[in-house]
Write a structure and sequence with these properties.
This protein is of the alpha/beta class. Helix content is 34%, strand content 12%. It has an 8-stranded mixed beta sheet with strand order 6-5-4-3-2-1-7-8. The protein is globular.
Length: 313
């Protein structure tokens, strides 16, 4: 392994990586999910019992109401499976905060979830949808047989509600993850491919494509170890390190809240149990906006995933 990530950062900045601001509160509602994806960094699935409680969600709303944070970013698992999900969105919108939800799209077809697209539309929720590729076989290999067709149908429903349509305020973004131990292609090139193929094949439009390198933690790390690819994949990440990605790293603009209410620099650190710097409160009940702005960010070798190539935004 080459130089440790924290040492690479110190060489560039003359010190540790620090937060630039806190514009987004990212909240992980738990690891319960209707899918079991091979690349999932939190190893989510239907058997997971970790779900954020109502009391913790109330603390989240309190923090949003008392701070200058502009956006609530909701993730999981499948965040929609938290029983308090709908009220969280409505309360956040009620105090004037922008809401983003990271969805797997297939959740729309689970019992009791059929009206989610309409709910998103009424609340002007920004939708960030996972679609690992634009070809059926590639998606089904990573996420299970029949997944691609469900995703296509879900995207058509969102388009019919004005999402991802030119000139609309309802934003729909897609997320690409590599299907194996390799790095993402150029984001703009891949976005052009997605837009061309989804429009030509299914009449689907969307706003932006975000590419993310798979982080070697959780279920993806297990796969790398089993297949003997862990060291080789880490070497790829280290070799592809790009210092130009550092200003745009999500951890420099976000505070993440784990399902127990713990505070982290990102959802990956949350999964690893790595909290925010010791000088800051460690739980949502101790949230101190001014201490969290400008804090030292806790890093590890997994952070090379977010700085490889174009980086993960």
């Amino acid at each position: 392994m080459n130089k440790k990530f924290k040492d690479r950062i110190s060489d560039i900045h003359g010190g540790p990586l620090v937060s630039l601001d806190v514009k987004i509160l990212q909240v992980n509602l738990g690891y319960f999910c209707n899918m079991t994806c091979k690349h999932c960094h939190v190893s989510a699935g239907s058997g997971r019992k970790e779900v954020m409680r109502r009391e913790t969600l109330e603390e989240v709303i309190g923090v949003l109401g008392e701070s200058d944070i502009e956006t609530l970013d909701i993730t999981g698992g499948a965040p929609e499976m938290n029983p308090h999900f709908l009220s969280l969105v409505e309360e956040a919108r009620g105090i004037g905060r922008h809401v983003m939800v990271r969805t797997n799209l297939t959740i729309f077809f689970e019992k009791g979830m059929e009206q989610l697209p309409q709910f998103y539309s009424r609340n002007n929720v920004e939708v960030i949808a996972s679609l690992p590729f634009y070809l059926e076989n590639d998606v089904d290999r990573v996420r299970g047989k029949g997944t691609f067709r469900k995703c296509i149908e879900a995207l058509k429903i969102l388009n019919s509600l004005g999402y991802g349509v030119q000139g609309s305020e309802k934003k729909l973004h897609l997320v690409y993850n590599p299907s194996g131990a390799f790095l993402s292609p150029q984001q703009k090139t891949l976005e052009d491919d997605y837009k061309r193929e989804l429009l030509r094949g299914f009449g689907i439009t969307f706003d932006n494509l975000y590419t993310f390198s798979n982080v070697p933690i959780g279920r993806f790390r297990d796969y790398l170890v089993r297949s003997g690819n862990f060291e080789r994949y880490m070497e790829k990440l280290v070799t592809a390190f790009n210092p130009e990605t550092l200003d745009g790293l999500m951890c420099r603009h976000v505070v993440n809240v784990g399902w127990k209410g713990t505070l982290h620099d990102c959802d990956f650190n949350q999964m690893l149990g790595l909290g925010v710097h010791a000088s800051c409160g460690q739980h949502i009940t101790d949230f101190d906006y001014h201490r969290l702005v400008g804090r030292t960010i806790n890093v590890g070798e997994h952070c090379y995933s977010c700085t490889a190539g174009q980086g993960s935004t």
